[in-house]
Amino acid sequence: MMGTGTTGHGPNGPWDARDGRDGRDTTGRLLRAATGSGARLIAEAATLVQGWAVLADPIAGAVYSAPAGAAADGVHAAAAPHDHPYSVQLPAAGAVLVLAPAPATPAEHTGHVAATTAALLEVRGQRAAELRGEQMRLHTTLLRLLLAGHADAVVDALGGGAYTHVTVYRLTGEDTPAAHQVLWRAVRPTLAPHADACTLLGRLDGELVVAEVHRGSDDGRILRLVSRLCERHGLLAGMAGPLPLAEMSTAYCDAAAARHSATPAHRIVPADAIGAPRLAPLLPAAPYARWAAAVLRPLDPAQQHLLLVWLRTGSKPSAAEALGLSAGTVRARIREAARLLDADLEDATVRAHLLLALRAPAPADSDAAADSDAAADADAASGSDSGSGSGSGSGSDEAALRNAGEARLEALPDGILDTGVVRAWAGGLVDGLEPRLRIALTCWLRHHARTAPAATELHVHRTTLTTWLHQCADHLAQNLADATVRAEIHLALRITRCGPDAPADLPRRGGRTYRRA
User: Fold this and answer.
1) What is the pTM of this model?
2) Of the candidates 337, 331, 332, which has an alpha carbon nearest to the alpha carbon of residue 296?
């Protein structure tokens, strides 16, 4: 028999199999370790081969590693076995068991340890799978309680871990059931009390929902796992948070709105990436904030949130799905908001202005900066005209109140888009478009990204318009599927236009053939 190592266990080393005790002792040691935990089992396997052992998962990376420093080598060996010819890899419990024995360890002994360890990992995995269904149902129940506003009850169920915030992910795709199982194994969720974070996984209405409940700080571990899961299983995901636990329903809606902007090139999209238009920070803060506060005054926070989700997702059915409401309810609430705002929300410009209003800074924040500037201007002017300052404060307040009462969504405050910074932004976004592309894009945006009516007005085939839109997206380097991007492009086209950009001005050369300018 093979037995060349000399470690002081006997005249022929620990692998003296002349009496058959080697195999029995090895199996017994692994069995005793397996009754403790998977980590103990991997550590015992590493000891028996006098090397290192790693259980590597394609999503989570190293599940168990002995020693800890071998984790990276184990993951690399599982991904590229040809680069590690001296290691042993076996599938085990949905992952890969990697053993790297010492040079003196006989191959037969290493193979026995690997096979026994893999079999015990499978047994542990089957036992975990028997309990998984009940645990998944519990997680789904806790998610529904969070969405219903029972955050305190959920925190109590989690052991009272002083959790304050939540980060929500919503994933969709054809492979969602398999992705749920894979992510469950990768996250290894536990409801242990007093942990720094707790991850809840559940499938709600066909979606995979992940809610990481934590104490205000998100270490990014779940984000990395979700990103790898999306790439591996072809899913699209939206992310929202961290937000206070009491705002779980808001985070849930925002995650769905963000998911509508995800593409195969960008499979996971955070809500703040689509919620803060690039144009808003360029506008003069004080008049912009006052105008937004004035036009939104008739709406309560719930109505404003519904409109924001609708404008982010780009359609009423998508907003209904994100909000968990029926499409008819969303349509009715949008009609009521339009009545309160006294505005035509079917107009593309009004929608773009509304999105700006909903994302405006708080008036108090902008007024602080504006007041300091105004005070400096007043001090500078007082030296030249001491008498003109009397009553100037009351006059400006009256003007502000008068302007607030006249504020409407159809028009932004005078001069707010006439600054050099805004015009430079608009020019950088849309300059260089050929006339036919500019006119086609303007028409398509005016029809709320609906190709058929835009093609009819332009008197071109839908396929032709689709081709032009692809050319526009390539030229602008923008995702035209994102409703926020479309709103900003619409405003940029209005800011930079030199003519009406009407379909009648489309360059033509007989029939339906168009020439390049």
Assistant:
1) 0.57
2) 337
